Amino acid sequence: MASSTSDRPGDGTRRVGRTLGGPQLAAMLPDPAGARPAYRQLARAIGTLILDGRIAPHVRLPAERELAAALRISRPTVTAVYDLLRESGYAHSRQGAGTWTALPKGRAPSGVARLLAPGDTVIDLARAAPGLPERTLADALAEITPRLTEHAHTPGYHPYGLPELRAAVARRFTERGLATVPEQILVTSGAQHALTLVLGLLCGPGDRVMVESPSYPNALEALRHARLRPVPVPVTDDGWDIGIAESALHQTVPRLAYLIPDFHNPTGLLMPEPERARLLRAAHRAGTWVVVDETLSDLALDVPAPPPFASHAARGGGDRVVTIGSMSKSHWGGLRIGWVRAGARLITELVARRIAVDVGSSVMDQLLAVALLARGAGPAAHRLEELREQRSALAAALHEYLPEWTWRLPPGGLSLWADLGEPIAPALAGRALDHGVRIESGSCFAADPGVFEQRLRLPYTLPPETLREAVRRLAAALADSRSASARARGPRWIV
């Protein structure tokens, strides 16, 4: 988005704002032709883009005449769109300053709402993360207490991370087949923090970033907030089309590629070893940095855990591969510990950037991480068996209650990527909340708007009986949605 200095309505101050051009906004909106009334469809679409984070708050919308020309509709229609946005709280205007996006009172962006705890009776399928057994946490806390008191007499700032944790993470990479020393590790406050630091160091506004489509929603939001331009490459039910990825690297020469090759989120797929090598060679030819998200690499359910993606680059002499990981999926999301594995010089540059954001991760969390990693790099065998049982329970419930949906059983990870057969996921997600299930439409996993509206990600991180009840409620919500659509259409007469 272009930058400009403008008045932001409502505060009377002069500040730098962002302007969304007419052609740019038009490319994000559905075709208004045939929609009745078109202004309501367009206003609803813009509101969805704001809630999804694809359009940020406090962005100036294009002038009415400009957007009308870009959409090839009348200016009064755009006037009606903006009027409806203002009435519903998605925009506000001031004479001479234009129309600016806003969040309605009481509404949170979907990226925030996904992380908020649901009500007591709501089954949460919006988050794919396991809990940590209470006994495991209690034992680890008892183990680290003496060491924590030793640190109480120090400032507690460790911008690179505690030396013992850096050594433990480096040893973990080495055991998996990629020789690593502690100087190549930066401890972060989760993988999302790691990705944000890497994007901020390696990319600038307007740079192209190749991403899989679908991909992890929070990573896509990090790209949008950094004002980067995604270059989507498809991940289908059959996996990655490496030919398309190679062409994208050759033709667009992205600054960076963000990949989830190990039990990909949301599909659960595992990228084959030959395809990894091909992708790295193509990225090397393009001069593209490759950021590999390995947060799910330990969650191998039906196959051996894969070696580090960067091991291919190490054999080929490549030095533009950055690996990020965390303990959020393998252990507990409440343990905000992640890491970056890269060259020692890049780690130092990341630390220099990190100081402007935070000066180090929690000492307590880092000591807990050391204690948990000492018990095993990934989740215990019994926890993997629990995931297999939960995956089987979810699949069985889908076969019973929603047999028309299709999916493939993933070899690992935490979720199924279901195809509903029709683009009803956004409406179904809204209806499902009335039935006590919180779930996100597949469109949240898309780099481009209007994609994957026939898809839902269904995590199997809850107990089997809870998953069965969740699917039963989804089936009831789908039946209600279809009944409501039939009533809206009214009776059909045969003449």
What name is given to the CATH topology of the largest domain?
A: Aspartate Aminotransferase, domain 2
Strand order of the largest sheet: 7-14-13-12-11-8-9-10
Rounded radius of gyration (Å): 24 Å
Counted up, domains total: 3
Strand content: 15-25%
Write the CATH architecture name of the largest domain.
3-Layer(aba) Sandwich
CATH homologous superfamily grouping of the largest domain: Type I PLP-dependent aspartate aminotransferase-like (Major domain)
Beta strand count: 17
Question: How many helical stretches?
Answer: 17
**End-to-end Cα distance:** 54 Å
Q: What does the average pLDDT come to?
A: 88
Description:
The protein folds into 3 domains: 2-101, Arc Repressor Mutant, subunit A (Orthogonal Bundle), CATH 1.10.10; 110-130 and 380-489, Aspartate Aminotransferase, domain 1, CATH 3.90.1150.10; 134-374, 3-Layer(aba) Sandwich (Aspartate Aminotransferase, domain 2). 43% of the residues lie in helices and 15% in strands. It has 17 helices and 17 strands. It has helices at 22-28, 38-52, 64-71, 75-87, 110-113, 134-151, 163-175, 191-202, 217-225, 242-252, 273-286, 310-316, 344-354, 363-374, 381-401, 425-434, 464-489, and strands spanning 2-7, 14-19, 59-60, 91-94, 98-101, 123-124, 185-188, 208-213, 229-236, 239-240, 256-259, 289-293, 321-326, 338-341, 415-419, 437-438, 455-459. The longest helix has 26 residues, at 464-489.
Main attributes?
495 residues, alpha/beta, Arc Repressor Mutant, subunit A, Aspartate Aminotransferase, domain 2, eight-stranded mixed β-sheet, 17 helices, 15% strand, disordered N terminus
